Structure formats: structure tokens, C-alpha cells
TrEMBL record:
<dbReference type="InterPro" id="IPR024041">
    <property type="entry name" value="NH4_transpt_AmtB-like_dom"/>
</dbReference>
<dbReference type="Pfam" id="PF00909">
    <property type="entry name" value="Ammonium_transp"/>
</dbReference>
<keyword id="KW-0472">Membrane</keyword>
<feature type="transmembrane region" description="Helical">
    <location>
        <begin position="24"/>
        <end position="46"/>
    </location>
</feature>
<feature type="transmembrane region" description="Helical">
    <location>
        <begin position="298"/>
        <end position="318"/>
    </location>
</feature>
<feature type="transmembrane region" description="Helical">
    <location>
        <begin position="243"/>
        <end position="264"/>
    </location>
</feature>
<feature type="transmembrane region" description="Helical">
    <location>
        <begin position="211"/>
        <end position="231"/>
    </location>
</feature>
<keyword id="KW-0924">Ammonia transport</keyword>
<dbReference type="InterPro" id="IPR002229">
    <property type="entry name" value="RhesusRHD"/>
</dbReference>
<feature type="domain" description="Ammonium transporter AmtB-like">
    <location>
        <begin position="24"/>
        <end position="439"/>
    </location>
</feature>
<feature type="transmembrane region" description="Helical">
    <location>
        <begin position="116"/>
        <end position="135"/>
    </location>
</feature>
<keyword id="KW-1133">Transmembrane helix</keyword>
<dbReference type="InterPro" id="IPR029020">
    <property type="entry name" value="Ammonium/urea_transptr"/>
</dbReference>
<feature type="transmembrane region" description="Helical">
    <location>
        <begin position="339"/>
        <end position="362"/>
    </location>
</feature>
<keyword id="KW-0812">Transmembrane</keyword>
<feature type="transmembrane region" description="Helical">
    <location>
        <begin position="53"/>
        <end position="75"/>
    </location>
</feature>
<feature type="compositionally biased region" description="Acidic residues">
    <location>
        <begin position="458"/>
        <end position="467"/>
    </location>
</feature>
Length: 482
């Protein structure tokens, strides 16, 4: 019988410090988050736009995922979680060395390789979310440049400041359980800012905004919803009671937000809207993210009521009353569903955060830190509660300003090299002009077959219907009050 090679001894493959259950869950959670982007957002984006932009929209998401993964292991991870370079940024470095990857992560009882993957898919989905505000008109070559630049000069700064143990906002005590600030406020503000610089879609595309496939749209948002179990459930970096609470609160808040949006649509428009339900799901998921494991279930319900109503109001009412909001073309309403909902989540976290749950998550004994304002008022620690609320608001202000400035600089720099917006011909034709391909190529071939002389017996009634030339009162991102 052959002896086992010494470099494969069990104690080295499974060191004493590693918890196999935690490692397995963290890899599973990371995969669930990855599935939110690929195929979740790919399906969602490809189905929520007009059919002529289905391929380009899905392609933007797939490219971003691949590019971010390589940039992340190349320099992004260590800039976000490595040794401090300056007060808001870590030192760049490659995260591919065997000794580095197989050692214990800076948090959790699993290898650094697991942490790199988990945090990497978070970085991926953030950039993919920005794409939702730029669909249907951004030059693909400009997008190719935008992705690595934004990851490097914006995402890493927010991640290091808020999530790294060495980050200045982390040391102050900002609560961002799973990315309400780092991911959603960042993506919402960056997408809105980039939309300003890229410019609007073609007039006809802004007028005809109905999705090309609502059933597939529901499939995409369903993957997003279920994948959020890994998004928020993986934040404690352990199979813990806090992870279980975070997952349950996530689904409770999201269900409440969905039903709230549905009720408002029915009351004000007379009919329940499927598109509205999708928006309600997303706002609920985003709002609970910074608070998922540090609030009680009743607070999650209240957060769902707020996340299903305030973004509804900003999208359905303010969007049409505020001239600046009308001017910015945001096809999938990323500003409302991510920036507004993320800001609400951060503020409500500062109000509802339970000190005991915060200590379970942050593993700190401090009684004067991580105290929600509601509990501060209840226990006589009013100043601590207001202090926490101030930190939450300060974190929001930092992320908003960071993304307005960095995104603007990046767009202006790219504009010196390539146009940010597609040509008029590309805007008119769509996918076939940009990529030389069609999303529904099989259907197109069927139409050619029907028109052939041999099959001239086919009736014209079977031909593809023209896209509607009208806009319903609940078209995505540009809703009109009835």
C-alpha cells in the first residue's frame, strides 16, 4: 500500500483553526450571491428592456462580473481589506499567493481564499447594479473601461472605510451589516451620476419602456430574492444564530415591501402591477441589508412598510415633479430602488439596531457603541443613540459624496478616449448594430422561414407583433400618475 504524500496530510488540508461547517456555508453563501448576478441580473436586465437591447443589457452584466473577478484578485481585495495605505484605503496587492490564500481569513474560521471569493462576488454585483442605470445607450467600449476604474477608485474606498477592521468608519462604529452602504447606496448614486454624464436613451426608447418578457423578469428577480439568503446570511462569516436571524428578517422585510407596493399600486392605479411588485421586492431587499442581523422581526416589518412606500412615492410622484429627476435617464430606476432604499436602510438601522444583536455580530463588549436610537431612548442612553444615528448619517454622506466625485472623474476621463454614448445609428438599431447579433435570433430565423416562397401559405396573422407605441402608467423608471 502506497504511503500518503507528506504535502497532503489531513492536518494541513484541514488545519485546526478551520471550521468545516463555517467554510462550507461561506462558500455556499458566496455562490448564492454570484447567482444573483449570473444569471439573476442577466435575466432581469435582458427581460426588462425593449427586445432590441436585450442582448447588450445582459452582456454588460456578464462582462462586468468577469472583469471584476480578475481585478479583485489582482489588486481589489487587498485595497479593500489589506494593510492601511491611507486613512480610507488599503495597500494594493495580488491575492493569488498560495500561502496567503490558504491561511486563516482576517475574520472567520475559514481560509482567506473563501473570503476573497465571498467579497469578490459582492464587488461584482455592485458594478452590475450600476449597469442597470446605463442600459440602452452606453458605449460598450466605455463600459469596458468604466468597470475596472470604478472598482479601483470607488468601491475599494467604501469597502475599506466601512468593512475593513482598519477602516475609519468601521472604527467609528457605523453599522452596515451586509452592504446597504458599500453596495446599494454606492451603486445607486454611481449609476445616477454616470447616467447624467452618459446622457439619455433615444427618444423612442424612453417613450416605449415596456419589458420584452415579464415572465422572465419575474424569474430574474426571483433569483435575486432567493440569493439574498447568501447575501445577508453570509455576513456574520459563521453558521450562527445571527445568520439565521438575518435570513429570516430579509424575507420578512421583502414580503412586506412587496405587499405595500402592491397595495399602493392598486389604490392609486386601480390595478395590481407586476412591474411594481418587482420594484417592491428590490427595495425591501435593499432596505433590510444594512440591518438584517441587528434588528428584531417587528422592526423588519416596519422597514418593509417604509421601503415599499417611500421609494414608491419618489418613483411615482417626485420623479414626475422634480425637473432634475426627469432629466436623468435611469431605465431601471436604480436611483430609487438602491440609492433611496439603501439610505432609508442605513437611517432605520441607526434607529432600530438592538445593542445585544450588534454585540453578537461585531463581537465587542462596548455598551456605548452600536446602540440604536430607539433603544437609547428606552434605556436612558439617549446620547449614545443620537451618536449612532449621527455616525449612520455621516456614513451615508461619505458614500454619496465619494461616488458623485469619483464617478464623475472616471466618466470625464473615459470621455477623453472614447464616447460615453453610442452613435445615433447604434441607438436606433440596437443589439444587431452593437454586437452583430440578436437576442431572439431563433425567432428571427422562423420569421424568414415563414416568408419564403415555399411556405407562403402561412398567414400574416402569425407575424411578430409590433412593440406597443404607447406607455402604460407604470412603465419602469418613468411612471406617470393616473
Amino acid at each position: 500500500m502506497e504511503s500518503i504524500p507528506t504535502n497532503l496530510l489531513p492536518d494541513e488540508a484541514s488545519p485546526a483553526w478551520m471550521n468545516k461547517g463555517d467554510n462550507a456555508w461561506q462558500l455556499t453563501a458566496a455562490t448564492l450571491v454570484g447567482l444573483q448576478s449570473i444569471p439573476g441580473l442577466v435575466i432581469l436586465y435582458g427581460s426588462m428592456v425593449r427586445k432590441k437591447w436585450a442582448l447588450n443589457s445582459a452582456f454588460m452584466a456578464i462582462y462586468a462580473f468577469a472583469m471584476v473577478i480578475l481585478c479583485w484578485v489582482g489588486w481589489g481585495f487587498r485595497m479593500s481589506f489589506g494593510d492601511k495605505l491611507v486613512v480610507f484605503l488599503g495597500k494594493p496587492g495580488v491575492a493569488l499567493d498560495e500561502k496567503f490564500l490558504l491561511g486563516q481569513a482576517f475574520l472567520g474560521y475559514f481560509p482567506t481564499a473563501t473570503m476573497v471569493f465571498f467579497q469578490g462576488v459582492f464587488a461584482c454585483i455592485t458594478v452590475v447594479l450600476i449597469a442597470g442605470a446605463l442600459l440602452g445607450r452606453m458605449n460598450f467600449r466605455a463600459w469596458v473601461m468604466f468597470v475596472p476604474l470604478w472598482l479601483t477608485f470607488s468601491y475599494t474606498v467604501a469597502a475599506f472605510s466601512i468593512w475593513s477592521p482598519n477602516g475609519w468608519l468601521a472604527k467609528l462604529g457605523v453599522i452596515d451589516f451586509a452592504g446597504g452602504y458599500v453596495i446599494h447606496v454606492s451603486a445607486g448614486v454611481a449609476g445616477f451620476t454616470a447616467s447624467y454624464w452618459v446622457g439619455p436613451r433615444a427618444d423612442k426608447d424612453r417613450e416605449e419602456t415596456q419589458p420584452n418578457n415579464i415572465i422572465m423578469m419575474l424569474a430574474g428577480v426571483g433569483l435575486l430574492w432567493m440569493g439574498w439568503s447568501g447575501f445577508n446570511g453570509g455576513a456574520p462569516f459563521a453558521i450562527s444564530s445571527d445568520a439565521s436571524l438575518a435570513i429570516l428578517n430579509t424575507h420578512v422585510c421583502t414580503a412586506t415591501s412587496l405587499l405595500t407596493w402592491l397595495l399602493l399600486d392598486t389604490c392609486f392605479f386601480g390595478k395590481p402591477s407586476v412591474i411594481g411588485v418587482v420594484q417592491g421586492i428590490i427595495t425591501g431587499l435593499v432596505c433590510i441589508t444594512p440591518a438584517a442581523g441587528v434588528v428584531q422581526g417587528w422592526a423588519a416589518i416596519l422597514m418593509g412598510l417604509i421601503s415599499g412606500s417611500v421609494p414608491w412615492y419618489t418613483m411615482m410622484v417626485l420623479q414626475n415633479k422634480v425637473k432634475f429627476l426627469r432629466y436623468i435617464d435611469d431605465p431601471l430606476a436604480v436611483f430609487h430602488t438602491h440609492a433611496i432604499a439603501g439610505i432609508l436602510g442605513g437611517i432605520l438601522t441607526g434607529f432600530f439596531a438592538v445593542p445585544k444583536l450588534c454585540r453578537l455580530f461585531y463581537l465587542v463588549p462596548d455598551w456605548d457603541k452600536y446602540i440604536g436610537l430607539a433603544y437609547g431612548l428606552q434605556t436612558g442612553q439617549t446620547s449614545a443613540g443620537f451618536h449612532q444615528m449621527g455616525i449612520q448619517l455621516g456614513g451615508i454622506l461619505f458614500v454619496v459624496c465619494l461616488n458623485i466625485v469619483t464617478t464623475s472623474i472616471i466618466c470625464l476621463f473615459i470621455r477623453l478616449i472614447v464616447p460615453l454614448r453610442m452613435s445615433e445609428e447604434e441607438l436606433h438599431i440596437g443589439d444587431e448594430s452593437v454586437h452583430g447579433e440578436k437576442a431572439f435570433a431563433l425567432f428571427a430565423e422562423k420569421q424568414k422561414y415563414k416568408k419564403s416562397k415555399i411556405n407562403s401559405v402561412y398567414d400574416d396573422d402569425d407575424e411578430e407583433e409590433e412593440e406597443p407605441s404607447h406607455v402604460t402608467s407604470r412603465s419602469i423608471g418613468e411612471v406617470q400618475m393616473v
